[in-house]
Design brief:
By secondary structure, the chain is mainly α. The protein has twelve helices and two strands; from the N terminus they run H-H-H-H-H-E-H-E-H-H-H-H-H-H. The longest helix is centred in the last third of the chain and has 42 residues.
């Protein structure tokens, strides 16, 4: 019975260790500023996003202004957008967008977990208006100072060069995903310290309860399970693949593509270390099992020990 308890405790320790690491990553994504900044903070500097953002701005400006943009202004808008992509103003505006989006997702998941909800409750739209405003600020100032003095020119009309731009990411999400499952995972992720503590307790329990070769066999099994979990988490949850249907805008596709890459670079290293830890545990377990005496050898050793006289007089007679 104690051998079974030892093996089960070690296996449960491996599962809880994986749950602790996964929970820590999910909790950090939802409630800490740095992970999302590390994952998606450099998106404005990427050329494909810049081109898509320029197209979005021009389209929105064409819709909002009473006349179509002349070719020269059209080109000026695109040139200004490109020049402002790698600037402190744009970086600050983009960070504001990221943190607002992260906070909105966290609040939605908490609300879904508490009150329930459907797929429509996870409609994800990224408001790029602060970024567009930062990217076109210099152009608006130049046009206002250069053309604002002309008769009949209303300086407020240049505000159309900073339109409200919202990128819809709903089409890139898995339609079969259950938002309540996401909400449950998000809720449970906050208990990751308890999972880590439970894993440590079970590891010690399994090592103490087990005896001889069974202890090492259990440790080897736990190492194999740890390595398997690390491999699966590293290749599946830590390497997401978003859908890209035809209706997905170029800006949304650019954001999703860079988020995929950034998330892999942020999440996978921890799981490769987790996998490597499992491999080390397997090696230690195999070495321990090979060096540990079998049950038959242990029983023979105990019998020999029991047969050796401990009384000095009997020991003297035994030697005679």
């Amino acid at each position: 019975m104690r051998h079974l308890l030892s093996v089960l405790s070690l296996l449960a320790a491996a599962v809880l260790a994986a749950a602790a690491l996964a929970g820590h990553q999910v909790d950090a994504l939802l409630h800490d500023e740095e992970p999302i900044r590390e994952i998606a903070g450099d998106i404005p500097a990427q050329s494909d996003f810049g081109e898509a953002a320029g197209d979005l701005v021009v389209e929105e400006v064409d819709e909002q202004l009473p006349v179509s943009l002349p070719g020269g202004i059209d080109g000026a808008v695109r040139s200004t957008v490109a020049s402002m992509l790698d600037s402190a103003e744009t970086d600050a505006a983009w960070d504001e967008v990221l943190q607002d989006t992260r906070g909105d997702v966290a609040v939605r998941l908490e609300r879904i977990f508490a009150d329930g909800g459907g797929a429509q409750d996870m409609d994800l739209r990224v408001d790029l208006s602060p970024v567009v405003e930062a990217m076109t600020s210099q152009l608006r100032e130049d046009l206002s100072s250069g053309l604002g003095w002309l008769p009949g020119v209303d300086e407020s009309s240049f505000d159309g060069l900073a339109p409200e731009v919202v990128v819809d990411l709903d089409a890139g999400l898995d339609e079969d995903a259950d938002p309540y499952t996401w909400a449950t995972v998000a809720q449970l992720s906050g208990f990751w310290p308890a999972y880590a503590l439970g894993s440590a307790v079970l590891l010690v329990l399994g090592a103490v309860v087990g005896r001889g070769r069974i202890r090492w066999i259990g440790l080897t099994s736990a190492g194999l399970l740890t390595a398997a979990l690390g491999l699966w988490f590293g290749l599946v949850p830590a390497s997401p693949q978003f859908d890209r249907p035809p209706e997905l805008s170029e800006a949304a596709a650019a954001i999703l593509g860079h988020v995929e890459t950034g998330f892999r670079q942020w999440a996978q290293p921890a799981w490769w270390i987790f996998l490597g830890t499992g491999a080390v545990v397997v090696v230690v377990g195999l070495l321990g099992a090979a060096l540990s005496p079998g049950r038959g050898s242990e029983r023979r050793r105990r019998r020999r020990t029991a047969q050796v006289p401990t009384d000095p007089e009997h020991a003297h007679l035994a030697r005679v």
